Amino acid sequence: ILIIDPEAEYGVLAKEFGGENIKISTNSTSCVNPFDITDSLYELKRNDEDNPLRLKQEFLITFIEVLAEGLSQQEKSIVDRVITKIYSEYMENLEKNIVIKPTLETFYDKLVLEVQREALNLALRLELYVKGSLNIFSKPTNVEVNKRIVNFNIKELGGQLKNVALLIICDLLWNKVCKNRELKKRTWIYIDEIYLLFGNEASAKFLFEFYKRVRKYGGVPTGITQNVEDLLRSDTARTMLSNAAFLCILRQSTNDREHLKEIFDLSDTQANYTKNNPPGTGIILAEGQVIHFRDKMDTTSPLYKMMSTKIDD
Fold first, then answer.
1. Cα–Cα distance for residue pair 185/164, rounded to 1 Å
2. Which of the ends of the chain has fewer CB neighbours closer than 10 A, N or C?
3. 234-244 burial, b if ≥16 CB within 10 A, otherwise e?
4. What are the distances in angstroms from CA 144 to CA 32, 235, 239, 245?
């Protein structure tokens, strides 16, 4: 069970069930290297659609695009060329039984050697995240994702860094899903405040592909949000919603309720179950069925105390 926790709401739950909390912030010692990749030459030389080298390059282009707040076509070509050089060298070293993991700093050092003016411009935009005070993604990975429940707390990251962290953690989780598949284990992934990943089209497309691949590899990804309106601004998000295998919809605003009625072809009666109802009341959409539910939780139970984020509790 892997949780991405943008508001630090799942830490107690993970701890009480014997899980691990990994805090990622500018003040934390925990680091996740976005350039991490398998050390298996066999895996890296595969030619199928899930080739880890191709998937890593696609992810890194998206990662750099979000970090740099956009890339021109020329800059995308330069980024792709530099990444190709980095992993060509990495594979050559593996042939000699030498493992030297590349990092964002490796990418930066190669980038400044490119002769194009666009390369220098991009390097200047990335310098803050490599050499400056926001260099938390330029170091080697020093966290392990081995416990049954792992919670990634990214609350202390600012808006842009939070979006970047979401992408990097999703990539890390993909590696864990692949390992669990070999062990014939399912991986349950929960992404809270998922609307953050739909803030730009690059990260939205990455999430779309991530969801498809994870489900194929025995993963069960779940997105959670209160901000349905923000989510529905993205065409990619609308597509993902309409193709979701299971949805749980709680109380909604009038505007959001109308949008959801349209997407899922809900009747007025069905939609009204998400209108001004008490907590724990809503509808479940699964396999073409719409099910109304009421789930009143015992507020004195230990589980409620672990889960509640209300000030009064």
1. 28
2. C
3. bebbbebbeee
4. 10, 35, 34, 31
Categorize the per-residue pLDDT at 175 as very low, low, confident or very high, splitting at 50, 70 and 90.
confident
Q: Say yes or no to pLDDT of 202 above 90.
A: no
Q: Do 177 and 219 form a contact (C-beta atoms < 8 A)?
A: yes
Q: Model confidence over 83-99: pLDDT tens digits?
A: 999 999 999 999 999 99
Instruction: Say how many Å lie between the first and final Cα of the chain, rounded.
Output: 26
Coil vs helix vs strand at 2 = strand
User: Do 52 and 43 form a contact (C-beta atoms < 8 A)?
Assistant: yes
173-187 burial code (b ≥16 CB/10 A, e <16): bbbbbbebbeeeeeb
Supply the pLDDT for residue 201: 81
| Two structure tokens written together for 244 | 């979701």
Contact 260, 271 (CB under 8 A): yes
Q: Which residue has the tokens 């949805």?
A: 247
Higher pLDDT, 203 or 290: 290
> In the structure encoding, which two tokens stand for residue 111, read together?
């980038």
Which sign does the torsion angle of CA 169, 30, 81, 85 carry? negative
| DSSP secondary structure of 48-117 | STT-HHHHHHHHHHHHHHHHTT---HHHHHHHHHHHHHHHHHHHHHHHTT------HHHHHHHHTTS-SH
Beta bridge partners of 3: 151, 190
State how far the Cα of 49 lies from the Cα of 125, in Å rounded to an integer.
Answer: 32
